[in-house]
Each structure stands twice: as structure tokens, then as C-alpha cells.
User: What shape does this take?
Amino acid sequence: MVSAMLCFVTVAVSFLYGTRVCWVCGKDCSFEIEPVEKKQTLKGRMPVGLAIYAFGFFVLFSFILDGAIAVTVSSLTSALILSHFVVSMAMPAFKRIPSP
Assistant: This one.
């Protein structure tokens, strides 16, 4: 029971911090900024968000799945998809603007 609690807390904190890093990265990419600066922002922060998500998924999938290859592939794939999804959701250009 203690290992399940530790797994839950670790995964929850990892997902919260990963979402925070990726969300700020997406919010900083607006059309007013030059594309070169956007690329630098994405190159600097996306790997951090990806690593935080990957750590959380490693803990989660290690608790659920058996086998090192299955855990590694599932964790990295899930972290890559989730980090890109959160960044793209947070970008101001992709937000829905209500019509007047």
C-alpha cells in the first residue's frame, strides 16, 4: 500500500510540474515574437517538460507494466505526445477567440 501511495504522489507531482513547464513554454510563443526567439524558447523548455513527464510515466508504467523495453517505450512515447499536446494547447494562436 505504501508503494502505491508513493507511486501516486510521485506521478501526480511530476505531471503537475511537467504541465506547468510546458504550459509556460506554450504561453510564451505568440505571433508578436520573432520565429527565432520562439525556436529558442521551445528548444530550451520542451526537453525539460519532456523529462519531467517521462519520469512520471516511468514511475507509473513501472508500477503497471513488466519488462524494461515496454516501460521505456511506453513512457517516452507518452511523455513526447503529452508534452507537445500541452504546449500546443497553451499557444495563444491556437486558442479559440469568441465571436462578438
Observations:
- The helical segments are 2-27, 35-64, 68-90.
- The chain is about 80% helix and 0% strand.
- Residues 35-64 form the longest helix (30 residues).
